[in-house]
Design goal:
Layout lengths: L1 E4 L7 H14 L3 E6 L3 E2 H4 L5 E5 L6 E2 L1 H6 L3 E7 L2 H12 L3 H6 L2 H13 L4 E5 H4 L3 H12 L5 H9 L3 H13 L23 H4 L2 H10 L1 H6 L8 H18 L11
Parallel strand pairs: 1-4, 1-6, 2-4, 3-5, 6-7
Helix pairs in contact: 1-8, 8-9, 12-14
């Protein structure tokens, strides 16, 4: 059975991948494959065993909708305050806010979330609730996969994947002069701080206002309170439309994220 770790960009999906992989390998029922740029579910699957992969977009896996509906796959998804997602994207890929708008990342993130939520077979977790409590998330993932391991062993597995442990592995990558781990999962600039609420000090009022306007329904549905007045939301929208007009026809597109 395929286990697809497909969380929102910059929202802890790497942690979920590591937890799922460690759990299936510790129980002897599967293995992690790593990052899949593009693949076919039937070719990746191995009957009788869990095979854990990481993607972000459902379009990276041919046949994923059919596999999920037929019970041949499960997915594990994470989400985060989209304001922090945008700030984290800017840090990791060194993008300006204008470039984020130009590439329509906000719309992509929200649409990808909608696409995954329409499919069955998912475990969905909130970044702010599990990033500092990986043991709880490991127990939840084990339950989702039907893996029977002693609770103390699951907690021990989770201890290997705390935020501090991940930062230590990233430091080792940098010392070794490597950009990524062999499986393509962890990068040398993968974690900036991991803190929640970074957007408050990193974004300007009109930028926050724009994000809160574009994602207002999603933010409200997931318990993220708006911070800006209608004035700043309006200013943000004006900035957005000015950017679209100025950038029309320009070729300085930001890099592809994955």
């Amino acid at each position: 059975m395929l286990v697809v770790c497909c969380g929102m960009l910059r929202s802890g999906s790497t942690l979920q991948y590591h937890l799922a992989t460690s759990l299936v390998e510790a129980s002897g029922v599967g293995e992690g494959i790593g990052w899949v740029e593009h693949g076919d579910c039937r070719e990746l699957d191995q009957p009788g065993r869990f095979r854990v992969v990481k993607v972000h977009n459902a379009e990276q896996l041919d046949g994923i909708e059919e596999a999920l509906r037929e019970g041949r796959a499960l997915y594990i998804y994470s989400y985060r305050d989209i304001r922090d997602v945008i700030v984290s994207i800017q840090h990791k890929w060194k993008l300006s806010f204008r470039q984020v708008l130009q590439a329509c990342y906000i719309d992509f993130i929200l649409q990808s979330y909608t696409n995954w939520m329409a499919l069955p077979g998912g475990h969905v977790a909130k970044y702010e609730e599990f990033v500092h409590a990986p043991a709880d998330e490991a127990l939840a993932i084990a339950g989702h996969l039907g893996i029977s391991l002693p609770a103390d062993k699951i907690v021990a597995i989770a201890a290997q994947h705390t935020l501090d442990a991940t930062k230590s592995r990233i430091s080792s990558l940098r010392v070794a002069g490597q950009d990524t781990t062999e499986d393509g999962i962890l990068h040398s600039n993968h974690v900036f701080s991991g803190a929640s609420g970074q957007w408050r000090g990193a974004l300007k009022p009109y930028q926050i206002g724009l994000l809160e306007q574009k994602a207002r329904h999603w933010l409200a549905q997931h318990g993220y309170e708006p911070s800006q007045s209608c004035f700043w939301r309006y200013v943000g929208l004006v900035y957005f439309w000015c950017c679209l007009k100025v950038l029309k026809g320009r070729n300085d597109a930001p890099p592809k994220l994955f």
